[in-house]
């Protein structure tokens, strides 16, 4: 082997360790520990309507929200970048993936028999990502390539992607048993079945083992950031925010979720830690009402908690019977980005 060839081979190996690894990706396609996306609604206050495809972007290397120069339906977008690796290598027997959504693509139907949850896992025996989002009919089947549904344009939507080392996916699999996700596409090759039996059970639609009402998992990202995952099963028949999350996090919570007219839950204050309903979101030169927002998130009311949680479930009566969950962090950058967006919320009567 010539010296020049050896140098080229080593250079390629080093390059591939970075570019070929499975992870969340920024808009330049570079590996990133985590990112958050807030897709803006089409209708805003005192503005002409947008396209419904603009979004805000925040990641582990940025200083705060930035309006992306891309649209969310582009492959250059954060969601496009992270899903491209899955779409180009989903047939590889050395990788595993699972895509779930209670409102899957290729149909206008949705099922209440499954958890109100939406997300994608993709990993190998080194690491991978868990993408959690609020977008119905998304993402497309891998063989269809990346795209964004027209139904996802009207309302605001959120997504969070976190990169995890392989050993964390056993915990994630157990959490997903509580979520009871509607899996519409997956592949868990044989080499993962001993480690990830729960994920295989979910993927193949086998009978689930018994689960309790709730479960909390402590997850650590690939770069060491701590996250808490709250997983609620169908046996926990109550508002996840009021009856559980606020009391565990020791924090009053401001909640922003989809609330169909006539089904809103009011702010709730009987318990030690209170839950308040956000009514309006604001950024410099941009604001919108909660009824135009399909995102699901909550943030501590005051800095003493500094929690921000992004996930699956809404605050309205029917959701008390649905399973799903939230990923929470005290990462100051994410907390401040969301906390500063709260323009108005209702006090308890």
TrEMBL record:
One MF annotation (Gene Ontology) recorded for this entry: deoxyribonuclease II activity
InterPro entries per the UniProt record, alphabetical: DNase_II
Enzyme Commission number: 3.1.22.1
Catalytic reactions of this protein: Endonucleolytic cleavage to nucleoside 3'-phosphates and 3'-phosphooligonucleotide end-products
Record's keyword terms, sorted: Hydrolase, Signal
UniProt record similarity statement: Belongs to the DNase II family.
Protein name according to UniProt: deoxyribonuclease II
Keyword Signal assigned: yes
Signal peptide feature range: 1-20
One Pfam family from the record: DNase_II
Lineage: superkingdom: Eukaryota
GO biological process: apoptotic DNA fragmentation
